[in-house]
Structure formats: C-alpha cells, structure tokens
Specification:
single chain, mainly alpha
Amino acid sequence: MDVLIHLFVGLHIIGIASLLGGFLTQMKAMGQGTARFVPAMLHGALTMLVTGVILVGLNQADDQTVNNIKIGVKLALLIVILGLVYVKRDEEKVGKGLFGLVGLLTTANIFIAVLWT
C-alpha cells in the first residue's frame, strides 16, 4: 500500500508542478496584460483533484489518520482554481487580478500542504 500511496503523491506533485509552472510561464505576459490560462494549468489542476481524492481514499483504507479540515480547505481552494481556469481557458486574455488570484491560491495550497501538520 505504501508504494501505491507514494506513486500517487508523486503524481500529485506533478500536477501542482504543472499548475504552478503554467502560471510562472505567463508571469511576463501578466505584466503586459496578455496572460492566459494555458492547458498545462487545467491539466495540472485536474491531476491534483483526481490524485488528491485517491490519496485520501488510500490513506483511509490504510487506517492512517486524515486531517479532514485540512483536506477540505485544500479541496475548496482547488475547486476555485479549477473553476476559474476551466471557465476562462479559451479567452485570449485574462485580467491581472484574476490571473494573480490563481497563482496566489496555488501557492497557498502548496503552503497548506507543507506547513499544516
């Protein structure tokens, strides 16, 4: 079971890397007002959602304690990120505030995962 959990943790990290990497590649465009949500951001958020749900299930099946409040906060942030990216994915330009919000929420999600014990 540990190998399976570690496999999905790795896939979860790949998802967050895709989401954050897509955001970081658009930082210069954000300064110019031409930033857009790239497909890597949508795919990364979806990967995070699927692997996160699987990880919660695997950890509960393995009788490990799961902090449901932490998972709920992370899920809420991810749903907001996913909703914004999904709805605005086809637009040529996304406003600086909206684009920055996705980066902020993504970063907050990372710090919640790492620092909330």
